[in-house]
Amino acid sequence: MNDYGVILNRLLNTPKDVELLIHIKVIDNRILDSEVSTLFQQLSKDARVHEKEFYYSGLVKDLQVYCKSPCHKWKANLKQNYFNTPWASISVIAAVIILVLTFMQTVCSIVGL
């Protein structure tokens, strides 16, 4: 139970983190999202974890490797900065379509069709 509290404390920094874990059904919440992160911080405040005996050490290492991957950083950057709203996604798709059509028009005018 100690290790579970510690890992959730590390994962739950903001109410948005709590909302995500509720959405994927990791936790079942009946209080405010902001209070959940505070609850786990208080529960694991004095918890001691030994790296060799920590039950979730493999998970932590896998997450660190995942987060260090340039491909995953790139995808996260795109999601956060360019695809954060439906309108942003639509405008990027429209821009790509316009570029493709412009390229096709240029090729057709050079070929003489």
Which key terms come to mind for this protein?
2 domains, single chain, elongated, 6 helices, mainly alpha, 113 residues
Residues in helices, as a percent range: over 70%
Q: What do the pLDDT scores average to? A: 81
Quote the beta fraction: under 5%
Spans of at least 5 consecutive residues with low confidence: none
Radius of gyration using CA atoms only? 23 Å
Number of helices, counting only DSSP H or I runs of 4 residues or more: 6
Question: Structural class, judged by helices and strands?
Answer: mainly alpha
Based on Cα principal axes, name the global outline: elongated
Q: Total strand count, please?
A: 0
How far is it from the N-terminal to the C-terminal residue, by CA?
A: 71 Å
Largest sheet: none
InterPro entries: DUF247_pln
Keywords: Membrane, Transmembrane, Transmembrane helix
Pfam families: DUF247 (PF03140)
Q: Would you write up a description of this structure?
A:
The protein has helices at 2-11, 15-23, 33-43, 57-68, 70-81, 86-111. It has two domains: 1-68, no CATH class; 69-113. Helix 1 (2-11) crosses helix 3 (33-43) and helix 2 (15-23) packs across helix 3 (33-43). The chain is mostly helical and 113 residues long.
What's the helix and strand layout?
Elements: H1 2-11, H2 15-23, H3 33-43, H4 57-68, H5 70-81, H6 86-111
